Amino acid sequence: MARYTEATCRLCRHLNEKLMLKGEKCSTPKCPLERRNVTSKRRTSRRRRISDRGLQLQEKQKVRFSYGVLERQFRRFFANAMKSPGITGDNLMILLERRLDNVVYSLGFADSRAQARQIVQHGHIAVNGHKVNIPSSLVKSGDIIRWRETKTRTEYYKSLVEKIKGKVTPGWLSLEEEEMKGTVLTLPAHDDIESRFNAKAIVEYYSR
User: Fold this and answer.
1) Three-state DSSP class for 98?
2) For position 88, which CATH number holds?
3) In total, how many domains does the chain have?
4) Mind listing the pLDDT tens digit for each residue in 36-60?
């Protein structure tokens, strides 16, 4: 499958918003967007006003880049969200939250969704005792996500055991730090979605 291979920080600069694509680096002064905002304060040039259509596109791109989903796959998620009962925008965000790579990231097994996607692809993760290497797999209520026994000997895993202590997870997930095991307590709800995402704007974008 095709994948974005350019510098990920360009995506944040393009949308002028932190998408937390580089993990901990995004929260430090080393973040390129932080440096850019410092220098941009010195500029006096006026920026062009963005149309409503442009704002909707930006919102769609913000969500797509944050979850690391390509356009064709994002459209499939949107089509499935439309077929499901309820509010389309909420359905879309819930489907994205249920992706295995996002769950691995939310449990603290990775610093970013991109790293979580790589961990899944390399076969480090088991769901209900079975190896799953497809990042877009959707978890269900009651699923148990943990590291495969053969992958617990790596240096990354050993450092993760120390770093994950005190990790706060979303309410729909639970984490057992000693066993490095996560459980899907229930499917995510509207209140579990990050408030910085405007799903309604995405629905309006695809409705035209």
Assistant:
1) coil
2) 1.10.1050.10
3) 2
4) 554 444 444 556 788 999 999 999 9
